Amino acid sequence: PITPTQNIWHNGQLIPWEKANIHVMSHVVHYGSSVFEGIRAYTQGSSAGVFRLPEHMQRLIDSAKIYRMPLPYTVDQLCAAVVDVVEANGVAPCYIRPVAFRGYGEIGVNPTKSPIEIYIANFPWGKYITASEGADVCISSWSRLAPNTMPSLAKAGANYMNSQLINMEAKVNGYVEGIALDRNGYLSEGSGENLFLVRNGVIYTSPLANSVLSGITRDSIITIAKHLGIPVVEQSLPRELIYIADEAFFTGTAAEVTHLRSVDQIMIADGKMGPITTAIHDEFFALVNGLQPDRYNWLTPVNVK
Ligand code: PMP
Q1: Which key words are in the record (predicted)?
Q2: Which domain holds residue 58?
């Protein structure tokens, strides 16, 4: 269950957590008309910082734009709102969940008569994939969203119906997560994570054209890999490449960097976290935890006392 905090930001104001309710006849409840973000704030010794906050807020605005949902706030205003709510609640490390949706107005499919509501909540949250020995995953029988159906660059609530099918199927079959193929059978991503493979010292990840979300952790990992001198190739990846990879890992705000032990009960190499995943993982956590200087300016400071 979510651990509640005190305040939630709503359309420019802080309101009590328990007052942040919507009507059952709101458009979003019936038609999934929402866009959202997931962000983490980390602590760096006695200070705290939100990871890649402007990039997340830009993606929120982009997601809304794809769905013709004009948000009446700039990136800077939304970033300030996140800082406000995190500071008011005084909770870090934490997970931050901004969501914008079509509220209570008309019941028809066309959403333009229903008001746009924006809320930002934050709350404490630990590991998303708790698999210290590595995650055992499967290839899903469900495909990722085809490009001309639901746009995968929009982080829209409705996309997560597809993610739920992938994740639930994996879980009932005893796996921690599923990886979906795209409509052409290439590797796409997990239900809430981008996918990376390592083979012969090269890192591979699916390009945005293979129905993946433009993950902010994905982008961060590509940046870190380049810094470490590890080549990164973005190309369509055949399914079987994951079975013969030297290493594989998921990235995401929730999943952070999670190494994969097996796929479809085929061990990835010896199943242990390999040297390249380890280097990437360690550098990522060194940056977010302040053990390395913030050389990319990825942390927005928050004063949580
Ligand atoms: N793909 C999907 C489908 C996701 O839901 C997420 C989580 N937002 C990701 C990838 C990873 O994106 P990010 O690194 O920005 O959290």
Answers
A1: Amino-acid biosynthesis, Aminotransferase, Branched-chain amino acid biosynthesis, Pyridoxal phosphate, Transferase
A2: 7-123
pTM given for the model? 0.97
Helix (H) or strand (E) holding 138: strand 135-143
Mutating to test ligand 1, I would choose from 212, 217, 250, 280 the residue with most ligand atoms within 8 A of its C-beta, which is 217
In ligand 1, the atom with minimum distance to the C-alpha of 152 is 3
Q: What is the pLDDT of residue 130?
A: 82
* Residues 239 and 197 both lie in one domain: yes
Counting ligand 1 atoms within 8 A of each CB, the residue from 152, 162, 193 with the most, and so the one to mutate, is: 193
DSSP 16-85: EGGG----TT-HHHHH--EEE--EEEEEETTEEEEETHHHHHHHHHHHHHHTT---SS-HHHHHHHHHHH
Residues 113 and 237 in one domain: no
Whether residues 113 and 140 share a domain: the answer is no
CA of 106 to the centre of ligand 1 (A): 31
Question: CB-based burial of residue 178 (10 Å sphere; 0-12 exposed, 13-18 middle, 19+ buried)?
Answer: buried
Residues in the chain: 305
Closest residue CA from atom 12 of ligand 1: 215
The answer, yes or no, to whether ipTM is higher than 0.85 is yes
* Segments of the chain with pLDDT less than 50: none
Total domains present in the chain: 2
> Taking CB atoms and a 6 Å cutoff, what residues make up the pocket around ligand 1?
38, 163, 189, 192-194, 213, 215-218, 251-253
- Collapse the DSSP code of 4 into the 3-class scheme (helix H, G, I; strand E, B; otherwise coil) and give the result: coil
